[in-house]
């Protein structure tokens, strides 16, 4: 059987290792969040990130309504946070299932244990066939530099370790 381009693409993307994040937002008192690896830096001047969100995801509507989001970089000892935000549990239950959640300066849900959290205001977005790419201006950054990021690749979680010399 010959694999389609789509099948080869999916396999190739499974080989791409990426940091695991919880993207959160809040609108009119309702929080939402989702696990995501499609997050990356965009510019330093001004500080900006981009986040890709499926337009059928619950968090998409919250980001569109509030025009802000937070990216919380999950530490490598908290896979349960990813499990909670990958589940079909009620939006509020997801926050109660794992992690300690506080509020940032933009009044967004911020994971207190995160390696880093970035609060962003949406500057613009672009829609693709299934996803929206949000361009966020970073307004606040919270750091726990002694922690290490949880990496997802090859269909599993990994720890970031330096290569030996």
How are the secondary structure elements laid out?
Blueprint: H1 5-15, E1 18-19, E2 21-27, E3 30-36, E4 39-44, E5 47-54, H2 58-66, E6 68-73, H3 79-86, H4 91-97, E7 101-103, E8 109-111, E9 116-127, E10 131-143, E11 150-153, E12 156-159
Antiparallel strand pairs: 1-11, 2-3, 2-6, 4-5, 5-10, 6-9, 7-8, 9-10, 11-12
Helix pairs in contact: 3-4
Strand order of the largest sheet: 3-2-6-9-10-5-4
Annotation, overall tally of beta strands: 12
Structural class: alpha+beta
Unreliable spans: none
Biggest sheet layout: 7 strands, antiparallel
Order of helices and strands: HEEEEEHEHHEEEEEE
Which percent range describes the beta-strand content?
Answer: over 45%
> What's the rounded overall pLDDT mean?
95
Distance between the termini: 43 Å
Give the quaternary arrangement of the chains: single chain
What is the count of DSSP helices, taking H or I runs of 4+ residues?
Answer: 4
Q: Which shape, going by the Cα principal axes? A: globular
Radius of gyration: 16 Å
Helix content: 10-25%
What is the compact description of this entry?
By secondary structure, this protein is an alpha+beta fold. It is built from 4 helices and 12 strands; from the N terminus they run αβββββαβααββββββ. The strands form 3 sheets. Strands 3-2-6-9-10-5-4 form a 7-stranded antiparallel beta sheet, sandwiched between helices. It has a 3-stranded antiparallel beta sheet with strand order 1-11-12.
